[in-house]
Design goal:
mainly alpha, Methane Monooxygenase Hydroxylase, Chain G, domain 1, elongated
Length: about 90
């Protein structure tokens, strides 16, 4: 396992903090019995924000781990791993 690049780590942490706030907001909306459509819109926005975090981490992985693996002649193993993770990520 490799470390996340510092720039990626900072951006991901910032986004995850925001997502935590979005989830807390959704919880409050449910507790306050807010209009269902408004809650669903916030759920969709939170899901999109979490997907963006995944894409940022994936890009960092490709820039670091995948690049190193290809240079070290371990490209096929990384391609197989990426194929597996992408099928989980894209569901």
């Amino acid at each position: 396992m490799s470390e996340i690049l510092p720039k990626t780590s900072e951006e991901v942490t910032k986004r995850l903090n925001k997502i935590g706030g979005q989830i807390a907001g959704i919880r409050r909306m449910v507790e306050e019995d807010r209009y269902c459509v408004d809650i669903l819109i916030q759920v969709a926005a939170t899901r999109a924000a979490l997907d963006k975090v995944g894409r940022i981490i994936l890009k960092g992985h490709m820039e670091s781990c995948v690049t190193k693996a290809i240079k070290g002649n371990r490209g096929q193993a990384l391609i197989d791993e990426l194929d597996d993770v992408m099928s989980q990520f894209m569901t």
